Amino acid sequence: MTKVPSSLENGATESARDILSGDRRALARAITLIESAREDHQAQAQVLLGNLLSHTGGAVRIGISGSPGVGKSTFIEAFGLHLTEIGKRLAVLAVDPSSALSGGSILGDKTRMERLARAPSVFIRPSPAAGALGGVARRTRETMLACEAAGFDVVLIETVGVGQSEAAVAGLADLFVLLVQPGGGDDLQGIKRGVMELADLIIVTKADGDLRDLARHTESDYRSALALIRAHGKGPRPQVLSCSAMEESGLAEVWLAIEKHNDALVSSGELATKRQSQAVSWMWREVEERLMAALRDEAGVTALSERLENEVAAGRQSPVAAATAILAAFRQQDGDK
Amino acid sequence: MTKVPSSLENGATESARDILSGDRRALARAITLIESAREDHQAQAQVLLGNLLSHTGGAVRIGISGSPGVGKSTFIEAFGLHLTEIGKRLAVLAVDPSSALSGGSILGDKTRMERLARAPSVFIRPSPAAGALGGVARRTRETMLACEAAGFDVVLIETVGVGQSEAAVAGLADLFVLLVQPGGGDDLQGIKRGVMELADLIIVTKADGDLRDLARHTESDYRSALALIRAHGKGPRPQVLSCSAMEESGLAEVWLAIEKHNDALVSSGELATKRQSQAVSWMWREVEERLMAALRDEAGVTALSERLENEVAAGRQSPVAAATAILAAFRQQDGDK
Fold it and tell me: Given this model, what pLDDT does residue A52 score?
């Protein structure tokens, strides 16, 4: 382990105490530390998280995604307000690896969820700045843990669906919610391939006015589609619901469905198992990513692997032979240190 | 690159010539070399593949999977015989990481496809012996390349669906075919989560006798389900067909659908792009797997990571801190060499 100076440890102990006591500013400062790329900040963040670890795990962790235009912010605001009405403390986080460094992410944008952002029992934090998905997701996971230590009952983690971000968010959460439009299936509004099967709950939004009947049909279509997929073998079958943020209808049912799903996971012991294996997966994913990053950054390796990528793509070099060359260059560099 | 003795190179040049001329025994010997775990055999295999590389790429690469009981062997035999009737040369390979070392895989089992195994224009090879999925899939990929160099027009790669094997096979193939039962959706016979969305073609088997009407309804159900999923953005939309191996009906339609899909990929340039990115992915996957294997096997790291896995699972240690410790132990070992 990196040897940590005692001043750092003391600072981390105080911050932990503040966070645990519900100090919102202390939480925000901790998250800024977690998100920082600086090595010394990272070391501090790890010490702090070590102190908070035994106080984590107390929230329901919900991942949420949906195509642009489906009404995600509208839904999150209406659903979030419902949760505050029934006495829940809610944190809203985001995973958006494409967010422009200056402009910030459109997710977790408080201006799109003004009423929710003003609620005292709600904490909203935009996505960490753009970067590799792995790094962004990891920081969001640690932010989630900090929020749990701070006493939030529900953590909502949203994503827009860039690349593999849904899979990353599903790997953080207890359950994954997918929002879809009435009518579904259009080129732009259908579900991205690979995502439907991550979902534990599919919600058809905008089930009001002219779209009400269409929403009901779409709900039924998704239920039929899910029936073709083998039950996980364990765990509750995915559900499909409709709701309208505008009319504020269906939101209580959504929370009841989530609670029911969660209770089932808790009583079967599956929630514990799931979280354990998620944590272990995170460990190995972190090892793998950092090892591969070290390899790719190695001076002698970068140029070689670029050249070999081209050779392999052109069919002039076999992938396995190219891999052998890259590994040899890397291990050699290491041996010279 | 590993320096290869000239005797090895000469041997590999001869073998390549034999394979290219259609010598079936030379092909079988080459595959045995590819599958061998011995380092010297591996080196020979890489030289041989290097010689064959410019002669690969000439087959239609089809991945195929389906739940046990769906009638995969029956289908492959009937479909394979149809292909021979229209003048195609067919290789049938398998990816089955769970195959018992002694008993061999149930896939590519010639006794289950006797008639097909006897056809002169057909070559059937069971899965490489049990091992990590990555290693099995890699050897199957190289076997596929050898078969292409040997002049086969179609390579069929089947898998039973253990773990992530469908994803691995989809990563080798131009298109992925999923076989399903009439009625679909049952606990045991529904599609494994994550697989439906890999499919380019879904085939409902056993569309004969009492099941004929049910098969037609199932075909329609899957078509509706696929309509909810966004078109890939590029590439043809997945199709759904029925067939009966017993009546030998629908098989010609299956091949026409595959040809049509393939032609579309070729004319849009997508096939080339797909194969290039598959090859590059294989290179990085190989680098990653061998690097992680080296890490896990490192004496000082194995015990440490086992202990840390338990700590992380128990919530006593954060995944990131544990990863840091594992990486430090590994890089240190490397530096000592």
Answer: 96
Residue A174 confidence (pLDDT) above 70: yes
Which of A177-186, A243-252, B104-113 shows the lowest per-residue confidence on average (mean pLDDT)? B104-113
Percent of the residues in chain B that have a pLDDT greater than 70, as a whole number:
88
CA distance B276 to chain A (A): 5
pLDDT 10s digits, B53-106: 999 999 999 999 988 788 899 999 999 999 999 999 999 998 887 765 444 455
Question: What is the mean pLDDT of the segment spanning B139-153?
Answer: 96
- If you average pLDDT over every residue of chain A, what do you get? 87
Above 80 in pLDDT, residue A77? yes
CATH for B1-55, options being 1.50.10.10, 1.10.260.40, 3.40.47.10, 1.20.5.170: 1.20.5.170
Q: Does residue A185 carry a pLDDT above 70?
A: no
Chain A closest-CA separation from residue B100 CA (Å): 24
pLDDT per residue as tens digits for the range B68-82: 788 899 999 999 999
A57-268: CATH number: 3.40.50.300
CB contact residues (below 8 A), chain B span 269-288, against chain A: 276-277, 279-280, 282-284, 286-288
- Asked: is A282-336 a CATH 1.10.287 domain? The reply is yes
Q: What are the boundaries of each domain within chain A?
A: 1-55, 57-268, 282-336
Report which of B236, B258, B67, B96 is spatially closest to residue B177, judged by C-alpha positions.
B258
Identify the pLDDT of residue A226: 82
Nearest to B287 among A230, A290, A323 (CB): A323
> Which residue in the set B222, B290, B308 is minimally distant from A228, CB to CB?
B222
Interface of B with A in 168-207 (CB under 8 A): 184-194, 196-197
